[in-house]
Design goal:
Shape: globular
Order of helices and strands: HEEEHEH
Number of helices: 3
Number of strands: 4
Largest sheet: 4 strands, mixed
CATH architecture: 2-Layer Sandwich
Distance between the termini: 45 Å
Length: 120
């Protein structure tokens, strides 16, 4: 009998390999990204303390939630996250693409965060 592996399981394996090398500290926290079909989520995490410093998503009511599953929504989330991170005093981060390809919405979020002032 052949065991079928779905795309999510493959992504989780890739993310596990990435997490072996990428860890967030207080000086340089990890910017973790997750995307679903409808929304995109990002958070800045200090892995040493196990705490989320700030987060943003396209599902937030304050943002309106209209552009969730597209590149426009990803850019808005990246900009919003960078603004919240700067308010908390975070400028340097390590980017964790979460096992997703660095392409499309993931790339748009990263580029928007860079333009808004985060360095990685």
């Amino acid at each position: 009998m052949v065991k079928k592996i779905n795309k999510d399981e493959i992504r989780r394996r890739i993310h596990t390999r990435i997490r072996r090398r990428v860890a967030g500290t207080a000086e340089r926290p990890r910017l973790a990204v997750f995307r679903s079909t409808k929304h995109i989520y990002a958070q800045v995490i200090d892995d040493k303390l196990g705490r989320t410093i700030c987060a943003a998503s396209s599902a937030e009511k304050s943002k309106g939630g209209k552009d969730g599953g597209n590149i426009t929504g990803a850019k808005l989330v990246g900009t919003l996250l960078a603004e919240r991170a700067k308010e908390k005093g975070v400028k340097l981060v390590v980017f964790d693409r979460g096992g997703f390809l660095y392409h499309g919405r993931i790339k748009a979020l990263a580029d928007a965060a860079r333009e808004a002032g985060l360095e990685f």
